Amino acid sequence: xxxxxxxxxxxxxxxxxxxxxxxxxxxxxxxxxxxxxxxxxxxxxxxxxxxxxxxxxxxxxxxxxxxxxxxxxxxxxxxxxxxxxxxxxxxxxxxxxxxxxxxxxxxxxxxxxxxxxxxxxxxxxxxxxxxxxxxxxxxxxxxxxxxxxxxxxxxxxxxxxxxxxxxxxxxxxxxxxxxxxxxxxxxxxxxxxxxxxxxxxxxxxxxxxxxxxxxxxxxxxxxxxxxxxxxxxxxxxxxxxxxxxxxxxxxxxxxxxxxxxxxxxxxxxxxxxxxxxxxxxxxxxxxxxxxxxxxxxxxxxxxxxxxxxxxxxxxxxxxxxxxxxxxxxxxxxxxxxxxxxxxxxxxxxxxxxxxxxxxxxxxxxxxxxxxxxxxxxxxxxxxxxxxxxxxxxxxxxxxxxxxxxxxxxxxxxxxxxxxxxxxxxxxxxxxxxxxxxxxxxxxxxxxxxxxxxxxxxxxxxxxxxxxxxxxxxxxxxxxxxxxxxxxxxxxxxxxxxxxxxxxxxxxxxxxxxxxxxxxxxxxxxxxxxxxxxxxxxxxxxxxxxxxxxxxx
Amino acid sequence: xxxxxxxxxxxxxxxxxxxxxxxxxxxxxxxxxxxxxxxxxxxxxxxxxxxxxxxxxxxxxxxxxxxxxxxxxxxxxxxxxxxxxxxxxxxxxxxxxxxxxxxxxxxxxxxxxxxxxxxxxxxxxxxxxxxxxxxxxxxxxxxxxxxxxxxxxxxxxxxxxxxxxxxxxxxxxxxxxxxxxxxxxxxxxxxxxxxxxxxxxxxxxxxxxxxxxxxxxxxxxxxxxxxxxxxxxxxxxxxxxxxxxxxxxxxxxxxxxxxxxxxxxxxxxxxxxxxxxxxxxxxxxxxxxxxxxxxxxxxxxxxxxxxxxxxxxxxxxxxxxxxxxxxxxxxxxxxxxxxxxxxxxxxxxxxxxxxxxxxxxxxxxxxxxxxxxxxxxxxxxxxxxxxxxxxxxxxxxxxxxxxxxxxxxxxxxxxxxxxxxxxxxxxxxxxxxxxxxxxxxxxxxxxxxxxxxxxxxxxxxxxxxxxxxxxxxxxxxxxxxxxxxxxxxxxxxxxxxxxxxxxxxxxxxxxxxxxxxxxxxxxxxxxxxxxxxxxxxxxxxxxxxxxxxxxx
Lengths: 552, 552
What we know:
Largest sheet of chain A: 11 strands, mixed
Largest interface: A-B, 64 and 64 residues
Radius of gyration of chain A: 26 Å
Oligomer: homodimer
Distance between the termini of chain A: 26 Å
Number of domains of chain A: 3
Strand content of chain A: 15-25%
Structural class of chain A: alpha+beta
CATH architecture of the largest domain in chain A: 2-Layer Sandwich
Number of helices of chain A: 17
Helix content of chain A: 25-40%
């Protein structure tokens, strides 16, 4: 089974080719015992013997695990091989694993908790803006997909088809939904009659299936989880407003929750969703400077309502086709978080989406220190938990504190609290930031007193959140080049950067850029420079600059 | 499309056969314009002209809808045809609609909101008891299903199979998950190594597919939503404890949240889940006195761990197979709520799971009363909302207050607040209970003052919640007959009741009962009568009484 599916699970990036398949496989599929401190790459000084943290050899009542033998479980340095690094992190942080079917993924609890945090935020926002959740069946008659011309063209190559049900060949093949516009319109046609039924604004959280050939955990899998919003309106203006509202919501989410400074804009005609009149997108720059399309919002115009006869009677008694939108964010976003913030040590999670915002590591040497330290740790945990902070104690006795420091840094927990016997007697704790390695990120003597501690930790979480966004923003900005000619564009792309330049050339010329450089128009950003512009390709007047990049 | 799938959507009940197919179809599939008050069956006096509520002919600035012509949209009386009544409620309350593929269901926002309330409660409880959410792929290699002998026997007749992916015939057919034990064990085998990895306790919220021949919205659909918990333990005792813990959680949920007085117990061998050593169940009595299996928890023993080689090294260094459980509650539960509490007027929702706990109906006659009434309604809404109560104002101007009263009674909202001009000047409101029709359920002059109103409404919601449970419990108890002989059992079942009697007979005799009476052993209840017992069938000594009933 394993051997059969491996080829498809290597990355799209050329770097991946350099990594032996065996290595990728073993990294991700072997039993993932937590890593030995000694086996991490040592860019950041994660074991600090000079302070409260004890040396790894500290006596604790644990059988010695055979960590020394597991030298192969290092995390590949990010700079050396971004794709191998990405897969290593997913394996070591236990975010996901491969499913038995080629290209499928099991989302493990720690990875799923990030998705749950995304859901919790967006679900509230969707409801606040008047959308209701509901659920559509995932089996769609094949004939539905064929009704909208560009839709079938876009999706038919990647459909999974159910042909047998209950032991019998089916009369009509069923499509396992790749997206739900067709079945949504089939139902909307039955529910919408007059302008009083509009706007109709719904959302569903669901799994979708696209038979992708080249897969990568989170970024592109045969089956993934997402939310898909679908709305119907009486006027094109309302539909446009809705499509823009939702891409704005995604943008705000990306900035404020995920600390990802996406660039929002409009897709080129070539890159527009199959069946949409206009597609808006948020584009994120990953750590390897490739772009990730992290969320989209489509103005569908009347394309689906015409194909499915979704009409309403307007206030003047006239029959009209509805104007529609759809918009989605998927588990791909988790991949975006990993690839935006992670470093050689491992994952680095934005506090607002981290399953564990604060990890508490109790430290003791002698048996008589144990109770005092564990009691203090437990009380700190309760204090923070009561204040709504996601906190966990790592009190396992099989691992040294040094090991735990590394483990939770690798898992990307934004803050660590260390409590040793000296801290207990001082009534204070040590707080370390994941985003600032070593002594610089460490503060001693923070009072355990509830209100002081809560205020301090909340403040620090906010600081880490802002700092991640700042860092990602400056990385992004230093890797976007303004270009005036195709030569400059090619040069920027060849350097692995994004190119931004005026564009009013044809679809053919856009495809030529893709063919020759590997870069595509990611979007025409909403934020546009002032002044007159000349198309970088043709020299003709251009209204807008476009953003070009290689992408996932 | 519609005609093709109708046969399967009629009910299993004999009553359904009496309802012309055309009628069932039209009831559920026609555009569901809200019903006219006049067209409701009139068991409860829902339009009360003698009190604050104005007569329907009150002038409001609405075009008169053509309600009089929609005489066919009545709700079939429950006593006349339970199945038709059930389908009418689902259609009229907009809980669900038929999907385009035979046997599939679209869960509409109001129905989905009930499912969300179920999720919110259970999700917290699962986490409190140490379970983590995660996600497994829905495509399972066909060979997996074949590994556990009784599992394949139980599930193979109802599988949906994907045979084509990305335009190509697949080498191995893929099963769209009917349940996930096989793929879970495949992954557990990779993750579990030593006793330190145990217990492993996870849950997923997912869709599942079973190619059922006879379907019914919520109760049995080709695709449904559920949560499935899966755990692995080091000892059989721990697995048994977990299986019992989860059925207890379901029982508590049913009683306290859904106001459904389920009977919890153990399934007979014949009725045990395909692949389980022991199945625990909660059985609910519907309004037609048929049993609904509303949730199950399985002790899987080592059946799947042996089939999939899921082993761990115990504390003595010995390799052992893990002991497992799985447990699930599905969208079927929504059907159980409808069929437990609904009456001729429509749905009746337990406050703890109602999407709208309080509906506020503003009432005015003259234009100059409008603002005052709407302001008061809005302020009442805000007050209640701030107190965590799910409240909605129905301020549409196209419908009369009388129409709204009926509509929201049909939708099952537990409480209604009426606010008219006289109420505004008195600073008070009128509160009506859904579960007590007419004047008896109506209280005048409840102060609008925040703390008074909130306390009053919370108290009333609790009362309604308790009252629904009491009513359902006394209905259940008056329909269970203690039997000592097969003759008595047959008589009870023939009367449509449940029969409870001592049982120690064979599987063959159990199947004979099913064949001859249509009833099955629903469970051996946990609560057993004291004293010695003789099997109702054989006269041999019996340890336990069993509960027999016809079921969905």
